[in-house]
Amino acid sequence: MGPLGTFLLLVIFGACVGFAMNRYGRTWLGRQVSGATGVGDVTYALVGIAGSFMGFHIAGILGLLSPLIMYLLAVAGAAATVWLWRR
After folding, report:
1. Which pLDDT does position 24 carry in this prediction?
2. pLDDT of res. 40
3. Residue 55: which of 34, 17, 81 has the closest Cα?
4. How many C-beta atoms surround the C-beta of residue 66 within 10 A?
5. How far apart are CA 15 and CA 84, in angstroms?
6. Residue 85 burial (CB count, 10 A)
7. Within 10 A of 69 (CB to CB), how many other CB atoms are there?
8. What string of DSSP letters covers 55-75?
9. Other CB atoms within 10 Å distance of the CB of residue 3
């Protein structure tokens, strides 16, 4: 897969993780409060995208050059970044 395909996959992975963490990772009250402060889907998606890029590149730095492992670490990086950002 070329650089454009990798870029698009990382954006999709990060956005999906961000949306999922916003929709299903919070309680009803938490969603009500975050909606009142303006923290929404777009913010979670952007944080997830940043995390997916970090996870992907950390896999490369560690020498884990298998594409499957790199993409799995991109998803894990997105989830970890969103989780840490919420805390």
Report:
1. 80
2. 78
3. 81
4. 9
5. 16
6. 16
7. 12
8. HHHHHHHTT---HHHHHHHHH
9. 7
Side chain identity at 44, as an amino acid letter?
Y
- Burial readout 30-65 (b: 16 or more C-beta within 10 A, e: otherwise): ebeebeeeebeeeebbebbbbbbbbbbeebeeeeee
Which amino acid type is present at position 34? S
Rounded CA separation 38/59 (Å) = 33
Whole-angstrom Cα distance, residue 9 to residue 41?
19
> What was the pLDDT predicted at 17?
95
> Which residues of the chain fall below pLDDT 50?
none
Does residue 21 contact residue 83 with C-beta atoms inside 8 Å? yes
Cα gap 77→12, rounded to integer Å: 13
